[in-house]
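Hello support,

Our group uses your service weekly, and this is the first time we've seen a run hang past the timeout. The protein is DUF7260 domain-containing protein. I'm not sure whether the cause is the sequence or the server load. Input pasted verbatim:
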Amino acid sequence: MAPTRGNEADVPHADGAASAGVRWPPMTRRIDEARAAVAAERACVATERDAFEAFDRRVAALATVAASTTPPLLSDPQRSGQSLERVRTAYEETVMSVPHYEAEYGDTVAESLAAEFGEDLAAALVGGTALTADFRDAVRAAAAAARREREEFLTVLDREDTSLARTAADLSEVRSDLEALDDPPLSDRSFDDLRALWESVRDVEARIEGIGMRRQETIRGYRKELPGVPTDLVEYLYADLSVTHPVLAAVATLGDETRRARRRVERRLASTA
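Update from on-call engineer: The timeout came from a worker crash unrelated to the input. Re-ran successfully.
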């Protein structure tokens, strides 16, 4: 999703209530950038999920050999090993052939297999001699687990995008309500009007604080949901952005503007009393 490119709103009068002297930043710009990052990550994860599914189909089609204790002198290890070579080739041509693989991982077949399937299964695939039925089942089970892991992460990414969209809408609404408080100018208001305006601005502040608290709860939920992931989800997703917590940054920006607006009203109240 492309970032919003709307013009920043100039404040009409120096003595306006909510935003006098302030040039408003686009509240949702950082969130739009975050949504674009989520969409890019989602595309990569979906491609990997599909790649593991394709790998599984190719492994399922491979012939297996019976487990045997026949001495190597009476067997054909080269022919048996060809089935494992086909497994590795299938892995390279599916999982390791996704467009972003080199930039994101850039590892060898052995390293990738170990990261996805575990050290033992990877060692057997790289150094083994035959693809038995049980071995093939183990490989397919590992591929299915990798695919499920991507599917679960896609669910998390979808939830994050929903959270971003909701927060962007809420911040835009709050900002509109705050801007609406600018009319009439402070100098044209009575003491009682200023008092009512102050209460309205405080209500806006409370709404902004609520949006920030809800976002913190969402982040804590991700940490509980992904306990085995060493990197914080939002820091991982937004590492390349100007801020690693774009939603909280947007909330803080609007919160600062609202606090300044409240102080202007308070100064006017003090001079009017």
